[in-house]
Specification:
Layout lengths: L9 H14 L4 E2 L10 E7 L2 E8 L2 H13 L9 E7 L3 H15 L24 H5 L13 H4 L4
């Protein structure tokens, strides 16, 4: 920094203001997030510790997706999870805020594959993502098929 010269750090100002507003929101159980169907940024907590930051065009839908993923995983409980969210006016704001919040919080699950909508994920031959190794999916029960004789009305 040059002596006697004021340098305004716009990025830091936005980051600080956004974090202040986000942290002023109530921390809610992830299973009952009460999020609007609007674009925004959210923070997920596990036992009070920031584990993931995300952006979305629909806060309500995305937080439900995360809750379902956690409820269908071993080694973790939805009761351990909470969230904060903040709606924004435009999606570009969420993009910028997400990046700033990731820098500020350095969440444990960021980059682990937790939040990804990866095409082909779960297909045979693909390596499991880090999050799936930490919290493997619960085994799904096989679908019971009716025998062909019953379908034709035979005993």
């Amino acid at each position: 920094m040059a002596l006697g010269r004021f340098r305004f750090n716009f990025t830091k100002a936005v980051q600080d203001q956004f974090r202040d507003q986000l942290e002023s929101q109530p921390q809610r159980p992830l299973a009952d997030a009460h999020a609007p169907e609007e674009p925004g940024v959210y923070v997920l907590y596990r036992d009070g510790h920031v584990v993931y930051v995300g952006k979305t065009p629909n806060l309500s839908k995305r937080l439900r997706e995360h809750a379902n993923r956690i409820m269908n995983a071993l080694g973790i409980s939805i009761e351990e999870m909470s969230c904060r969210h903040l709606a924004v006016d435009e999606e570009w704001m969420a993009e910028a805020a997400e990046k700033l919040m990731i820098q500020a919080y350095e969440p444990d699950w960021q980059g682990s594959g937790f939040g990804g909508h990866t095409p082909g994920s779960g297909r045979p031959g693909l390596r499991p993502r880090e999050w799936d190794r930490m919290f493997p999916p619960k085994q799904q029960q096989p679908i019971q098929r009716r025998s062909r004789t019953r379908e034709r009305g035979k005993p």
